[in-house]
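Hi team,

Below is the intake form for SSS family solute:Na+ symporter from Leeuwenhoekiella palythoae. Please confirm the fields before the structure is written into the shared record.

FORM ID: S-0412
PROTEIN: SSS family solute:Na+ symporter
ORGANISM: Leeuwenhoekiella palythoae
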Amino acid sequence: MILGLSYLDIIVLALYFGVIVYIGIRSSLKIKKEEDYFLGGRKFGKLFSTFASFGQATSADGPAGVATTSFKNGASGIWSSLLMLFATPLFWITAPWLRRLRITTMGDFYEERYASRKMAATYALVGTIGMMGLLSVGYKAVTTTALAMTGKPETALTPTEKIEKEKADRLFELSNENFTYLSQAEKQELTELRQENPRALFSYFSEDLLIWTICFIVLFYTALGGLEAAFYTDLLQGIFIILLSIILIPFAWQAINQQFGGSGMMQALTNLHEQLPESTFEVFGSPATLDFTWYFIIMAALVSGMTVVAQPNQLVTAGAAKSEDAARTGFVTGTFMKRIVTILWGMVGLCAILLYGGKIMNSDFVWGHATTQLLAPLGLGLVGLMLASLMAALMSTADCLMITVSGLIVNNFYKYFYPERSARHYIWAGRISGAIFLIGAAVITTQFDTILQILKFIWEFFVVFVAAFWLGLKWRRANRIAAWCSILLTLLLFYLIPMILPVVFPAMRTDESLAKLTESLIVTRNYDVKEVDLENRKHDIAQWEKLPQSEKEQIKKPEALTLGGTNAVDYAMPQQAIFWSKGVSVNRADERYGRGYIYLELYLLDRLGWDLSRNPYALNETIRLGIRLLFPFLALIFIALATKPDPDEHLMFFYQKMRTRAIDNSTLKNQPVTERLLFPNSNWELYTWNRKDSAGFLLACLVVILIIGLLYLMVSLGS
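The structure came back. Fields below:
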């Protein structure tokens, strides 16, 4: 063993990286012009488009992130990666639009539609930051998993680390107790430890070292080979991703049967249902679910579905296809592939609750801990294969995003200052800008505490451009002034000002009114009594017996349960910060202080008289997302109606492109206009659907229903 990994694990990793580097070097020899580097010559058919879509949609945050949220929230945690399921049929319609644009980057869209190179440059800069955040999720997932795989034994901890681990163990112990039967002193201790958030795991490796190592490996092979190298590795890495999605499950089932008796899949699933509370299997969340209530799922799905099409990487995936049929087939099929493997990742999280529910405090370490416990004892190099698979998942996203951002920066920003240079010059500019992007993503990764924090940032960041994109495509009345106002106002009000204010006025972070938390509500639900409930109730009675006499008089003694009856379960919802993106902690002076940037929209609502502390945390998040999605649309529409429309001559060529289907790589001049307007005498560019549009959309809707059915089947088997 070397630092937690066997020699065979290290050999597997070395072989994987050797193949990746070879692909990068070989692809670099084929690059002759900019389109070869940034779009691979627009030559990819349905197979490569499918795996490119699957690869860029599936980073390491997929398996590790879903296992994290499922371990923390039960079956409803699967929605952390399943939110865009409902938007997938829409991609059957929007993917051809992206291919018809016939542009290199999404920034080109804003230049062509609004005749503004400055808007394109602004999109390039802001979009790059958003893509850095998207990649940082993968960085975080791989590093937390690798840390869990290479954890120090207790004998190797330093004195300081031992003290912190003791605090983490105590926090974990109190968190697993029934809150109702904790003494007042224990409740206070639990609150303080939650705010302190001590570490429970210490690795041989530094998280920062792992982040930078992965960063430079991706940089090397992608900078060499461009999009062709990215797509070829996506095909290879897509197979790895599918492999890692299933490899843990049979071993987890075997471990469950060894612990609770029986053999085979069905017995393992039966044990899962018999040993875990019924609330664990509620797909749309139980009162114990903090993050994924049904209304938050609907709002987050709406926001992510609207914003994802405006992301820079969506244009590259669709734009590199040789036709719009290849683009739409690959886009939708690859996205559905991710939704299916998401359910498998959720199964790992549910199994981990039963196997490691009393052993893991930080849910971000679930995937790594499960890998070490289930695969390492076999000595077959499977831990190395898992780590290689996770890195493959990260790299398949990183390489596409790097090329995406390189194209954005070169085409829409760099060329603005350095026009008419050689193709070789711009390719090297793309490589350098891609390197800066990967490094920036690594820096952003270090600024967030958990995977879920980064996910929420990504879901909503592109609301800045969402109105200018959607209305620019479909409403001729949208003009340059209104688009600029929508973009700048959204960026200022929701991001720049909230980030700058706490820096200029640091006292805001400790202001009592801004450090406000949601109330710790007690929610009661009734469930059928299982064996596990009998054991838990015996423990609750023992806890009540330990309470001081004065507190016993205030809390009713829990009644004994009988198998087959009903059990009223009280859930204490944890207090959560309302106004700060990274929550509220306690500093050394025992003052509460806000972390991250401030949510001005929620603070305004609170000051207007709506006491947000009385709302569940998920409701406040739902309100905040709704405001951020609605505002840019309203701003653009009202300002567009109050100002002069853009000249028709400028819009004619743009909408001619959008009405002409891209059946191959032929120039626009050789293609007839094929789309008919649904409302020909209005400002709306809504097209009638042909048989292929309708059939594909309906089939995609059917697949959505089947995937939801598969999710329900997964959580109900064995019940």
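SUMMARY LINE: The radius of gyration is 26 Å.

Thanks, M.
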